[in-house]
Design a protein that fits this description.
single chain, 359 residues, alpha/beta, 7-stranded mixed sheet, two-stranded antiparallel ribbon, 47% helix, globular, binds nicotinamide-adenine-dinucleotide, binds zinc ion
Length: 359
């Protein structure tokens, strides 16, 4: 097992990563002591892992709050359902929520914890690769609004994150690949040796080899931990913004294609190739680096070419992404593999040309 610490002063917390962690009571004992525990999950994960987590917690009384499965339920109605369950069972300020699931459950549970009785403790137990390497770490919580994704939320850190890699055995392959896009992202933005390691390990990762997964998840979390420790609240032009590599392109693709048709990680993978291409066209990135990026993403069986979206619509969608200030699109671009930067200083023609490229 590996422990990574997120360094945030009084809000610091550990991330535990390993196999068979649902049998390690001692990892969570101090956080659940004297707490009334409620587990928030969805119908898919309930069937797979709820009993194991209940056994892990050991308490006599555990409230299970089970939501329907899907991004469309990351909304106000589900949030209200969580509050209703907690209130009707007289859960007070001594409550602790456990988020058992992927990023949808993690985000909504974190936000419920941030707001219920002005803030109660919570633990993240992420069950998708994406949530293990990205959404469960760093304290962004929230729900969607009908007018935009993740528009209501709060920064709120968990007490600990329990990453049991065994759960990935049941994760559909397509979801695994989508998570790999975020793993590759860390190599691209700040860790060249990790990128090189992924070039060698991609096959083993797709096969869900436990050692390879353990390594990729640990290094991803270490990278995210360092970024978040430096820039917890994503200051303007701060280092945390570089985590959005490929995301402004990707969000536009997700949105244009209708949410759910392209998974987030698939859209981000393609968005990273687009950002790399634009970086190359602007003279920042070498052709060799661009080719390596494209090959790695391809080897993860992720898309590298954008779907046919009319260019002006693509631009509009990029502009309405919340990372845009005064209509100027901030983009994360690459100087080399392992070195990303944020800029809005580029000719519009370079962006426009990128939108219709095939790679
Ligand atoms: N807070 C953040 O920093 C942050 C970062 C990135 C993404 N997100 C959010 O995360 C969400 C996406 O998360 P996701 O990709 O984990 O999707 P998800 O939570 O929808 O999970 C994907 C699917 O896999 C199923 N599943 C989960 N674990 C499983 C397992 N072990 N075995 C079998 N099936 C399993 C789920 O039930 C679901 O159907 C989005 O809402 C996104 O906005 C948040
Ligand atoms: Zn992402």
């Amino acid at each position: 097992m590996k422990t990574i610490k997120i360094d945030l002063g009084s809000r610091s917390y550990p991330i535990f990563i390993g196999q068979k962690l649902f049998k390690e009571y001692n990892l969570i004992a101090e956080y659940i002591k004297n707490k009334r525990v409620a587990i928030v999950t969805n119908t898919t994960i309930e069937a797979l892992y709820l009993d194991e987590i209940k056994k892990l917690v050991k308490h006599q009384e555990i409230l299970s709050i089970v939501l329907p499965d899907g991004e469309q339920y990351k909304n106000q109605e589900s949030l209200t359902y969580i509050y209703d369950q907690l209130l009707s069972n007289k859960y007070g300020r001594d409550s602790l929520l456990i988020a058992l699931g992927g990023g949808v459950i993690g985000d909504i549970t974190g936000y419920a914890a941030a707001t219920y009785m002005r803030g109660i403790d919570f633990i993240q137990v992420p069950t998708t690769l994406l949530s293990q390497v990205d959404s469960s770490v760093g304290g962004k919580t929230g729900i969607n609004h009908s007018l935009g994704k993740n528009m209501i939320g709060a920064f709120y850190q968990p007490k600990c994150v329990l990453i049991n890699i065994d759960v990935l055995k049941t994760l559909p392959d397509r979801e695994l690949r989508a998570g790999l896009a975020e793993v590759i992202k860390y190599g691209l933005i700040r860790d060249k040796s990790f990128f090189e390691c992924l070039e060698k390990e991609m096959h083993a990762l797709l096969e869900k080899n436990p050692e390879s997964l353990m390594h990729a998840i640990s290094v991803s979390c270490e990278n995210k931990a360092q970024v978040v420790s430096e820039d917890e609240f994503e200051s303007q032009k701060g280092i945390r913004a570089t985590l959005n590599l490929g995301h402004t392109f990707g969000h536009a693709i997700e949105n244009a294609m209708g949410y759910g048709n392209w998974l987030h990680g698939e859209a981000v993978a393609c968005g990273m190739v687009m950002a790399a291409y634009m970086s190359m066209e602007l003279g920042w990135l070498s052709i060799m680096d661009f080719d390596r990026i494209k090959s790695l993403i391809k080897s993860a069986q992720l898309p590298i070419n954008p779907p046919a979206i009319e260019k002006n619509q693509f631009l509009d969608l990029m502009q309405s992404d919340k990372k845009t200030l005064n209509g100027q699109i901030n983009l994360i671009l690459l100087k080399s593999i392992g070195h990303a930067f944020i800029t809005n200083d580029y000719p519009d023609s370079a962006l426009f040309e990128t939108l219709s490229q095939n790679f």
